[in-house]
């Protein structure tokens, strides 16, 4: 975006200078013919003479100068200067159009190359009021993502504030677009388009292409929630319904809501994360996860659909346990390194 804006600004300056030069030629030429014609011709005749000389249309001389040698030399000067300036204007516009097309093609190829290198990323289908918040939270959490939207101005508006965001312009219900976004290597898909019908189709398409990908769909009307689940969505969220619950919580549990809001808004980027215990950590104590990592707090362990809150440090972990952890993106990365046996 910044590169494109720089090109546009540079071209506009060139066009402005060349147009000013062209206007100057018209003014000088009109005044010159008026003087050389000894006021026998009107200002409009003189202006038209300049126009004929520059455009090389080939009509007869409006300001006739068979006896004025200097007048013909003046016409030659006006014609050469005007033609040169008009040629410069046309070449500048043409170069801008070609350069813009080539630049767009280069940016598109570069974007596709970066997307092709992604693994375990997330695909956000729709960058409306909900989708932009989803993409922004993924960015703040340090999780790679690709956004898809059919409205190019909407994408451009988001990219202006998030220049590093990878994106595709297209219909997320199209399998080819999901494939281009790397659905086969993606960890999950957010179906957060504006229409429930679109989110239903996105969920179905994502599950057909990659059955083990997790799909979370937005549902405006709760009566469509079951349909969307049957289409393949692992989780269906209604912002209107969740927003109502949040409003009630803000009334009856204000301190809890204040804490959660501050956690999300904090500069430390605290988040509630879920961590699955790999085979390498089987039969290891929970304290092993705290090795050189003070930016994480395990709040609960889920084991076989049961919860254990505030587990002790000597709690023995088992493969496929799920930890509920309050941590920062850096703390999560450290936990993943520890669990992979790198430390």
What this model shows, in words?
By secondary structure, the protein is an alpha/beta fold. Helices cover 53% and strands 14% of the residues. It starts with a helix and ends with a helix. The protein is elongated and about 105 Å long. The strands form two sheets. It has a six-stranded parallel sheet with strand order 3-2-1-4-5-6, sandwiched between helices. The longest helix has 48 residues, at 69-116. It is built from eleven helices and ten strands. It folds into three domains: 2-114, Orthogonal Bundle (Helix Hairpins); 118-243, Rossmann fold (3-Layer(aba) Sandwich), CATH 3.40.50.720; 269-339, Regulator of K+ conductance, C-terminal domain (Alpha-Beta Plaits, 2-Layer Sandwich), CATH 3.30.70.
Between the first and last Cα atoms, what is the distance in angstroms? 41 Å
List the total number of helices. 11
CATH class of the largest domain: Alpha Beta
Instruction: Count all strands and give the number.
Output: 10
- How big is the Rg? 33 Å
By CATH, the architecture of the largest domain is named: 3-Layer(aba) Sandwich
Within CATH, the superfamily of the largest domain carries the name: NAD(P)-binding Rossmann-like Domain
Give helix and strand order, one letter per element, not per position. Answer: HHHEHEHEHEHEHEHHEEEEH
Shape: elongated
Low-confidence stretches: 1-5
Which key terms come to mind for this protein?
343 residues, alpha/beta, Helix Hairpins, Rossmann fold, Alpha-Beta Plaits, 3 domains, 4-stranded antiparallel sheet, disordered N terminus
């Amino acid at each position: 975006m910044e590169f494109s804006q720089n090109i546009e600004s540079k071209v506009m300056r060139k066009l402005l200078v060349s147009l000013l030069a062209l206007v100057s030629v018209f003014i000088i030429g009109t005044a010159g013919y008026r003087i050389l014609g000894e006021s026998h011709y009107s200002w409009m005749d003189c202006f038209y003479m300049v126009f004929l000389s520059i455009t090389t249309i080939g009509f007869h001389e409006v300001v006739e100068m068979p006896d004025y040698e200097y007048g013909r030399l003046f016409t030659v000067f006006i014609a050469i200067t005007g033609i040169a300036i008009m040629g410069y204007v046309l070449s500048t516009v043409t170069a801008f159009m070609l350069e813009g097309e080539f630049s767009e093609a280069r940016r598109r190829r570069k974007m596709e190359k970066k997307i092709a290198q992604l693994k375990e990323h997330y695909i956000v289908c729709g960058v409306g009021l909900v989708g932009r918040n989803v993409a922004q939270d993924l960015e703040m959490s340090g999780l790679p993502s690709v956004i898809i939207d059919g409205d190019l101005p909407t994408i451009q508006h988001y990219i202006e504030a998030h220049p590093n965001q990878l994106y595709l312009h297209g219909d997320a219900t199209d399998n080819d677009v999901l494939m281009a976004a790397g659905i086969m290597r993606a960890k999950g898909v957010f179906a957060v388009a504006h229409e429930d019908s679109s989110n239903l189709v996105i969920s179905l398409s994502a599950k057909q292409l990659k059955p083990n990908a997790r799909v979370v769909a937005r549902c405006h009307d709760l009566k469509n929630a079951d349909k969307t689940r049957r289409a393949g969505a692992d989780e269906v969220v209604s912002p209107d319904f969740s927003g109502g619950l949040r409003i009630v919580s803000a009334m009856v549990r204000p301190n809890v809501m204040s804490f959660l809001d501050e956690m999300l808004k904090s500069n430390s980027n605290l988040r509630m994360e879920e961590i699955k215990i790999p085979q390498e950590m089987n039969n290891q104590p929970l304290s092993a996860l705290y090795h050189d990592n003070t930016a994480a707090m395990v709040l609960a362990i889920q084991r076989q659909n049961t919860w254990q809150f505030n587990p002790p440090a000597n709690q023995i972990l088992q493969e496929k346990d799920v930890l509920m952890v309050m941590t920062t993106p850096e703390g999560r990365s450290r936990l993943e390194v520890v669990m992979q046996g790198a430390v």
